[in-house]
Specification:
alpha/beta; 7-stranded mixed sheet; two-stranded antiparallel sheet; 29% strand
């Protein structure tokens, strides 16, 4: 899938025209924050995991990392990231553009509470040079998130 598919998906919410595309890469939190002119925490990174036959996306603030104990307690198993090939096969987006929109059927989307401190956040929009700015209620609705979770901790230097 691509940024065009995400735009088509977001059109049902009247938000397709809010997708921003950049000349520069937004494939990492740091690059995305620089391109969008925001602090790294406001970049809503989408982390993709596999747990047996489940595919789980956790959308979290850009300045946190997964806490393995919290993840295991929440999902009932060890956090195993998808490989780049598995991300395309299981989620439908390539690494760098993985987002919680227009994903394959059966993908579980969860929002981490680390996002709640921001009025708006910027998740990717299906490519390694795009994003869309959303409020918390919009992110929850547009991503069809199944629930809010607490699986992250601050990144330490």
């Amino acid at each position: 899938m691509s940024v065009e598919m995400v735009k088509e998906y977001l059109a049902q919410f009247g938000a397709a025209d809010r997708v921003r595309e950049f000349e520069a890469s937004t494939a990492t939190v740091e690059l995305a924050a620089q391109a969008a002119g925001v602090e790294p925490g406001r970049i809503a990174k989408t982390l993709s995991f596999k747990l047996e036959d489940r595919t789980i996306l956790v959308v979290a603030a850009g300045d946190v990392k997964v806490d393995n104990v919290k993840y295991k307690n929440t999902f009932g198993g060890k956090a195993k990231m998808l490989t780049p090939q598995e991300a395309v096969e299981r989620v439908g987006h390539a690494v760098g553009g993985v987002c919680p929109f227009a994903v394959k059927e059966g993908v579980e989307v969860c929002l981490d509470k680390s996002l709640r401190r921001f009025e708006t956040v910027l998740p990717a929009a299906g490519s390694a040079n795009s994003c869309v700015e959303l409020t918390q209620p919009e992110l929850e609705k547009f991503s069809r998130a199944s629930r809010w979770v607490d699986v992250c901790k601050p990144r330490t230097a």
